[in-house]
Amino acid sequence: MTYPDTKEQITEGLPLERIKEINILETNEPLIEIVENNRIKLLSDHKYLSPNLRKKARDILYLAADNLPIGYKLLIVTAYRPIRMQKELYDARLKQLAMKHPLKMIFNYRGWRKIVNLYTSPPGGSSHQSGGALDVTVIDREGNRLDMGTELTDFGMKVHTENNLITDEQRKNRKILYDAMTKAGFINYPLEWWHYSYGDRMWAAYSRKRECFYGPVTE
Question: pLDDT tens for residues 133-142?
Answer without folding.
Answer: 999 999 999 9
